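Re: weekly structure request thread

Next one in the queue (148 aa):
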Amino acid sequence: MAEGPALNGRPAARPGSAARRVWAAVGIVVVVAAGLFVHTQLPDTAATDIAGDALYAVVAYLAVVFIAPRLASRWAGLIAAGWCVAVELFQLTGLPLAWGAAFSPIMLVLGTVFDARDLVIYVVAVAVVAAGDRLLRARRRRRPGATD
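Done, posted below.
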């Protein structure tokens, strides 16, 4: 899609990228609230662990979209999945567990201990949210008068 006219030597943002950023911000707030609910209010089970991991991956995707709203869904997904995998592998060092013992909120961002199952959950969750984002963006572009 063509970019708008240049402004101060930089191409203007694509119409709709601001709306995508707003939706990403709203999504981040909603998904973080859901994640905190799962983490603090529900019993610690395999299902809540999986839900928490999936929500973490969705927030990672939404954060990428918020930062770069013009980025194609597949690239946002690759970056988000890469972040999630990198954080999970970082847990092999033991540092997130040690840091979390000193400052517990860090565990919400870096986790604690490595679990190979998490890698699969992250990739699947990011693939699902990226596919949904791609479908929604394609649908908006097909509407009469749509600009994104």
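The longest helix spans residues 116-142. DSSP finds six helices and two strands in the chain.
Next request, please.
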